[in-house]
Write a structure and sequence with these properties.
Elements lengths: L3 E9 L3 H10 L5 E5 L7 E8 L2 E9 L11 E9 L1 H16 L5 E2 L1 H7 L10 E2 L1 H11 L14 H5 L5 E7 H17 L17
Parallel strand pairs: 6-7
Antiparallel strand pairs: 1-2, 1-5, 2-3, 3-4, 5-8
């Protein structure tokens, strides 16, 4: 097992559409994304392509510092992966991204899940279905149900993952930035780096 990690971001954006979903799920988070870096610079999911229209969606590389995610509440979870799993994950996401115009948002599948019905169509995903599919295809996490029935909060319940952070996205980015500043300033006069226990990034 390598020391590589992947990250799942669960968010509550507070939009009207997501508030309607929460009326059904009764859970705090309604959106799931996946990333391979703790700074969440490259975050992937299936969601709306424009902030103002929830019905036009597909594969997205999300801008977490943009208007849509402002003040979003979140939980960041992570798990360790092997080099082979990580390479397979990168290759799969890159393939989907290169063919993103062939993919669309599985809005019907999202409504079907509310009746515990699976509705899978070729090249269509909703957010947690996409994340679950990627995790399963890359043999990182096994699910006891089809990915089309996996809701965002269920990712948090998998024993493979540990909680790295809970709070607002703004607070998370501040935490990451503070760690980076500490690391950059933790250099001795002879040029050797000194790392304290508090500098470890999960």
């Amino acid at each position: 097992m390598s020391n590589q990690k992947i990250y799942i971001l669960l968010t509550d954006t507070g939009t009207l559409f997501t508030r309607l979903i929460k009326l059904y799920t009764k859970k705090p988070y309604n959106h799931a994304s996946i990333s391979i870096d703790p700074e969440l610079k490259n975050v992937y999911s299936f969601g709306r392509k424009t902030a103002k229209n929830p019905f036009i969606g597909g594969f997205v590389k999300e801008n977490l510092r943009g208007e849509f995610f402002t003040d979003s509440k979140c939980t960041v979870i992570s798990c360790s992966v092997t080099d082979a799993q990580l390479n397979k994950l990168k290759a799969l996401i890159n393939k989907i991204e290169s063919e993103k115009d062939d993919y669309s948002y599985n809005l019907l599948g999202l409504f079907a899940i509310m009746f515990n019905k699976q509705l899978s169509r070729k090249n269509t995903f909703f957010c947690s279905q996409f994340v679950a599919t990627v995790l399963q295809r890359c043999e990182i996490v096994k699910f006891n149900k089809p990915p089309a029935l996996v809701m965002p909060h269920e990712l948090m319940e998998k024993e493979d993952f540990i909680v790295v952070f809970q709070g607002s996205l703004t607070e998370y980015f501040l935490t990451i930035e503070c760690r980076a500043i500490e690391i950059n300033t933790c250099i001795s006069t002879n040029g050797q780096e000194k790392f304290g226990k508090s500098l470890a990034i999960s």
